[in-house]
Structure formats: C-alpha cells, structure tokens
Amino acid sequence: MSIEESMLAGCAAPTAPSGNALMAAADGDADEATLAHLRTCPQCSSHVAELRAMQARLRRRLYRLYCPASDILVDYCQGLLDPYQRAAVAHHTAICPHCAAELVLMERASPLADALGYTAPSFVIMPLP
Amino acid sequence: MITQPSDTLTRNAQGHTPGVALRPRQGREGELAISDGTLTQMDLATLVRRCATESEHFYRGQPHDTSFSYELFRRALVERDEQAWEQLYLHYSGLVEGWIRRSGAFVSSGESSEYFVVGAFTKFWRAIGAERFASFPSLASLLQYLQLCATSVVIDSVRAQSWSEMLPEELISPHHGPQTSPDEEAVNRVDREEFWRFINGQLSGEVERVVLYCSFVLGLTPRAIYAKRSELFSSVNDVYNVKRNVLGRLSRNQQLRQMIDV
User: Fold this and answer.
1) Between vectors from CA A42 to CA A41 and to CA A44, what angle results, nearest 5°?
2) CA distance A40 to chain B (A)
3) Contacts of A27 in chain B (CB under 8 A)
4) Are B195 and B120 within one domain?
C-alpha cells in the first residue's frame, strides 16, 4: 500500500488532521490536537507509521551520502588538501550542518591551550646502554 | 611534554609554522640548537632523555628546544622505527587522552578514552609516512595533526552510532555500526549514489530536490529546511506540502518500492 492509499483508507472523523499535520507527526513535530487524535485513531496512527517507515528507508540509503570521511576533514583543517579538494570540502560544509559541526569541533582544538593545561610529561626514561 | 615555543604554535592555512624552517631548525630563540647530523645519530635513550628535559623546561616556562621531540617523530614516522614509535606513544598518549576527554563529542560517544587513544595514534601513523613528513615542518604542526586525528576518531564513533540508529538490529555489529571492509564501503557508496540518482530522476524542479536532499541526505526537519532555504518557501507548511506530495509519488513507484523494501 502506498502512503497515499493508507491515508485514503483512513479516518472519517470530523476532526481528522490534515495530511500536513500527519506528516509533521511523522517528523516528530505534531501539535497537541494531532497528538490527541493519534492516541485514539488507529487509521491515522497507522498512516503516520507508514510515513515514518518510508522516511526511515530513504534516510538509511541517503543519510550523509556526500559527507567526506573524517580523514579528509582532518587534512582540510591542516591545510593539506589541494585547491580542488579544499573547495569541494568548503562547499560541502557550507550546506551540511553535520560536517560544519565536526569542523567546529576540530578547529576548536588548540595544541597550545591544551598543552598548557596538561600535567607533567610522562616520558619514560630509558636506561643508557 | 610539548617542547614548542608558544609563538610557533599558531595555526596557519598551510598547517606550517611561520618563521620556522625545516632545516636547520631553531631550538631556542636565536640560537641554533643542535646540528641535524648529531640529532639523527643520537641514540634513542639519549634522545628520549633530552625530550624529557626540554619538556620540563617548557612546563616551567623556560626556554626550550623542540628539535629532540621533532627528531623522535621523524624516526617514528619516516624511518618507521618501532622503538621510537613506542616511545612516542608512551610520551604523548596522556596528552592525546586529555584532548579526547575534552573533545566536545566524547561524552556522547559512550566509549572509553583509551579506545580512542589507540585509534588516534593508528590514524596518525597511517596518515603520515616518509613522503608526507615534509608537510610537517615543526613539532607544533605534528601535534596539531595528532590532535585533529584524536578528535576525528571520536567523530567517527559518533558517525557510526548515528548510522546504527538507522539500521535494523541484525545488521549492527556488537561494537559500532555495520562492519564493512573498505571495499564494501566503496561499493555501498556507489550503490547509494545510484539510488540518489534514481530518486533525483523522479523529482521535478529545484524545490522538490531541495526538500528531498535536505530531508534525507542532510537529515533536516521541514522546520530546519525552511530556516535554511526560506527564499524557496512561504512557510514551513509549504515544505510539508512538497515533502508529502513527493513521498506520496515515490511510494507509488513500484521500482523504488522494490529497491527500498529489500
């Protein structure tokens, strides 16, 4: 059954939520009235479940499809990429909030600050031959 | 431990440290520390001892010489000297663990810091060989890269967790996410790219493409999509309309249903 068929097979209640309201419910963004309706309407609940399942399948195949490996982000931060790769990563991170957040985590790292906060060195002194 | 003058630790676009030449290196300000020939011939025990001494100077805020630590890195990475690598690991693992513990993603990773320390050093070892070492002209640049590797292994773990939350349980390994070889990952990626091309072929126009890409490739909610691309939509409801219409159309597509129901 397509998600539209599951909608058509659904609820005849006068207070039935709109298609968009059910879509919002599937996205975890439902208002109180829709949530209240879903608690009592098996047809609409089933439709929301269908929407969630469809979205989960799509996300599983597509999520972060074009995100560079973290090794590439490391080289980007270190300035080791060639100009083409660098431009590609810059373009991607401008639209991808996940990679942008990861870059912030990487850029936040400061060897000097951390080194200064670090306790005594732990060199193992090897015996002289 | 870190034997690098503070004024040379500033990060720049190339990851190089301004004013510090590769050879000969300046140890203390204005003073040539030690000749390269002497350094490369120094036995490991003496080298490690000098590293420790200079580290103490660093932590006391005294003038210090980075040449010895840099030479330890060089032997470990360029010569692939196992003993030098072992000393390097012993010397810096505490520092790396501190970086990992302070990394923003560590708390949500659910892993032990020791696990990440091993991963960080492994990544560092694999990334820098003899051919690449020249890109790291100073101790600061090497430590900066090691720190980036430390952060990235935590990020890898968080990425794997977010993947595992989307997969059916039978496909998830007991440790992290789906276990696939690099070859399998490459095939998987090609397969996923083909899938996106198929989906893309079912869409009509930029607005639908934006909604689908943002929803499923970037994982954004309609509200977030509206916030990001408000020039394309008059309200969040608009985004929901587009998403609902496209999902309805895709769910009627038999070929797609076969692809995603597997």
Assistant:
1) 70
2) 23
3) 221-222
4) no
Same domain as A26, residue A7: yes
- Indicate if B55 and B123 belong to the same structural domain: yes
A49 and A77 fall within a common domain = no
Please give the structure tokens belonging to residue B178: 């789906």
Contacting residues of A for B243, CB less than 8 Å apart: 23
Residue pair B138/B66 in contact by the 8 Å Cβ criterion: yes
Residue B172 lies in a domain: no
Structure tokens that stand for A21 in this block = 């309201």
Q: Which residue of B has its CA nearest to A105?
A: B104
Nearest chain A residue to B151, by CA: A106
Residues 6+ apart with CB under 8 A from B25: B33, B36, B66, B67, B70, B138
Instruction: Provide, as residue numbers in chain A, all residues whose Cβ is less than 8 Å from the Cβ of B211.
Output: none
Q: Is residue B237 part of a domain?
A: yes
Where in the sequence is the domain holding A53, given as residue range(s)?
3-62
User: Do B132 and B208 share a domain, yes or no?
Assistant: no
| Chain A CB contacts of B147 below 8 Å | 109, 111, 114
| Nearby residues of B79 by Cβ (< 8 Å), 6 or more positions away | B130
Q: How far apart are CA A93 and CA A102, in angstroms?
A: 9
Same domain, A56 and A78: no
- Asked if A121 and B56 come within 8 Å (Cβ–Cβ), the reply is yes
Q: Tens-of-pLDDT digits for all 262 residues of chain B?
A: 444 333 333 333 333 322 222 333 444 433 445 667 788 889 999 999 999 888 888 878 888 898 999 999 999 999 999 999 999 999 899 989 999 998 877 877 778 899 999 999 999 999 999 999 999 998 889 999 999 999 999 999 999 888 777 766 555 454 544 556 667 777 777 888 999 999 999 999 999 999 999 999 999 999 999 999 999 999 999 999 999 999 999 989 888 888 877 4
Structurally, chain B folds into a number of domains equal to 2
* Partner-chain contact A106 B127, CB within 8 Å: no
Residue A11 has pLDDT above 80, yes or no: no
Residue of A nearest to B15 (CA): A78
pTM (two decimals): 0.78
